[in-house]
C-alpha cells in the first residue's frame, strides 16, 4: 500500500481532492443538463414512456405566445435588476462613512440579505395588497386608491421585479463594501497629495479599483435576473393569466402542473443557452482579470 | 498553488488514503446494502393539511399498532407538493398507503398500473352496500382501485344574519340571482366573493354555469375533450357570465388573492355570497360559524336537472407497495364507520359511507340532505379534465373574468390546446 502510494501520490493526491467536487458537479449539474436536453426532444408526462418527437417541442415553443410573454418578462427583469449594481455602490459609499450610528444603518441595509427570498415575496405581496397593503395606506393618505399592481397585466412584472431588486441591491452593496475595504491606501494618499477630492477622487482613484468587484456584481445580477423564479411563484403564480411568468416559471408550470416534461425541458434548454452566453462572458472576464493581476 | 505534497505531515496523507478507501467502499459496498423493510411495517404518505385530521390519523394508527402489533409510519407532506411528489414515489419508493383524489385523477395512475386493484377488500368488507353510487368514483373497468374518502359539495355560501338583516332569500332562479346581486351592490357589498390567484375558483364557476345551462352529459363531453371550446353550446354560458362581470358581481382585483382572503370577505360581511365547498368554514371565526349557510347554485335554464360538482378524495394502495396485505388490514380498520366518521368530521367533509354516525356539523348534514336531491355529479374542472387542459383552461377562464372582451381569442387558444391534447 505505502509503496504504491509513494509511487503514485503525485497524481493520486490531486485526483482524490478533486473527486468529491467532480462527482457532485458531474452528476448534479452536467448529467442533469445533458438529460434535460435529451428529454426536450421527447414528449413525456414524467411517468410513462418517452416518445421521440425530435424538434417538435422547440417548434411549438416558437409558436407559443406564452413563451414570448416569458421572454419579454425576463428582459424586464434584467433591465430592472441592472439598477442593483449602481444603487448598491451608492449605498456602499454612504454607509462606508465614519459617522456615528452608521453601523446600525449598515445592518438595516443588510436585512433583506438575511431574509429568504420567499419571505421577501410574501411581505411584498402584502405591501401591494389593494385592500390592506402598505401601498394602499400610503395612497390613502392622499385620498386616492392604490393600483392593484399584482392584478394588472401591465404592471405586475415591474412590481414583482422591484420586490426582487430589494435583496439584490443589498447583495451588491455588500460586494462593494468589501471592495471599499480593500482599497489601496497609498493610491488614495497619493491622490490626496495631488489635490483630488470629492467626485474626482471617486471617479479616478476609487472606482478604477472597484472595477473587478463591479464586474462580479453585474454578472451575479444578470444571472440572478435570468433565474428569477421564487418571487414569481410566491407573489403571483405567474398570473394574472400568465402575464407575469418568466422562463423558469413557465418551465416549472409546464412540467409540474401540465405534466409536459418534454416541453418544460425545451424551455429549460432555451434558458440554458441564454445563460451560457452570459456565463461565458463572465468567465472570459474573470480569466482576463486574473491574467492582468498575475 | 505550489505546494510540495511530500513535505506534508503524515496525517494529511493518512486522511487522503482513508478518503480514497472510503470512497471506494461507498461506491462498491454501498450497492450491496439490503433495501428490505420490516415485513410488518405499514408506510403511509398523507397530504393532509388539517392539523386535527393528522392527529386523528395518528391516533387511529397507534390504536391499530397496539391491537395488531404492526408498525405504522406516517409521512406528512405539504398538500400541493404532494401532487408532484406522488408521480415519482409511485414509481420509485412507494409507500403502502397514500392519499389522492378519485375520478379522473385516480384513473391517470390506474391506467399506468400504479394503483393496486383492491376489489378483494371491497368484496371482503362488503363496501359496495354501504357506499352505493360513490363506488363509481373509485371504479375503473369494474374494479375498485381505492377507497372514497370525504366528499365536497360545491355551491353558494352566505351568512344567515346578513341575509336576515337585508331581508334576502337564497336565489332559486337566475332572475333572483341577478336581483340579489343588485341588492348587494346597493348595500355596498360585493355580490360574489372570489379569489382566483390559484386559478381553480374560475374553473369552478364555469362548471356551475355550464352544468346549469348545458347539463351533465354535455359538460362531461367537454371535459373529455369531445366538444370544442368554440362550440356554440358555450355561447350562452359566456354571455351570461359576461353580464355578471360587466355588472361588477365579482370581487375587484380577484386575481391578486386566493380563496382564503375571499372567504374572509364573506365572513366580514363585505360580500354577500361565495361559490366554494364546505371548507369555507375555515375562513370563519369559531363564533361566526353558526351563521354560515349553504344554498345550491341557482337554476339558469329551467328544466335542466340538478347536477352539482361533488369532489371525492380517496385513499389508495400503490401497486409497488411492499406490504399490500398489511395496507389492506389497516384500511379495513381505518374505514370502520366510527373511525372514518371521526376522521372526516374534522374537515367538514361528507362521509361516503351511509352508516357513519350523523355529523354534529349542521353544514355537513345540510349537504348530505342536498346531495339526495342531486341527479348527477361531476367532480371539479381540474379533476374532470386532463391536467394539461385544466391548467390552460383555468388560466383562460381567469383571463376572461378580468378581460371579458378577449373572449374569442381565449376560446380559440383553449380550442388549440384541446386539439393538441385530445386530438
UniProtKB/TrEMBL annotation, chain A:
The record describes its membrane topology as: Multi-pass membrane protein
Q: Which GO terms describe its cellular component?
A: plasma membrane
Report the transmembrane regions from the record. 75-95, 107-128, 155-180, 201-226, 261-283
Q: What Pfam families has UniProt attached to this entry?
A: BPD_transp_1
Query: Where is this protein chiefly located?
Result: membrane
Intracellular or extracellular location(s)? Cell membrane
Q: Which residues form the ABC transmembrane type-1 domain?
A: 70-284
The GO annotation for biological process reads: transmembrane transport
What keywords are assigned to this protein? Cell membrane, Membrane, Transmembrane, Transmembrane helix, Transport
- PANTHER family (UniProt xref): ABC TRANSPORTER PERMEASE PROTEIN
**Family note:** Belongs to the binding-protein-dependent transport system permease family.
Write down what this protein is called.
Sugar ABC transporter permease
Tell me the organism. Mesorhizobium tamadayense
UniProtKB/TrEMBL annotation, chain B:
- An example Pfam family from this entry, by short name, is SBP_bac_1
Enumerate the InterPro entries for this protein.
Bact_solute-bd_prot1, SBP, TAT_signal, TAT_signal_bac_arc
Q: Does the keyword rRNA processing apply?
A: no
* Intracellular or extracellular location(s): Periplasm
Record keywords, A-Z: Periplasm
The UniProt entry's GO CC annotations, sorted and at most eight, read: periplasmic space
Chief localization class?
periplasm
Its domain of life reads: Bacteria
Q: Write out the similarity annotation.
A: Belongs to the bacterial solute-binding protein 1 family.
Q: What is this protein called?
A: Carbohydrate ABC transporter substrate-binding protein
Q: Which organism is it from?
A: Mesorhizobium tamadayense
Taxonomy of the source species: Bacteria, Pseudomonadati, Pseudomonadota, Alphaproteobacteria, Hyphomicrobiales
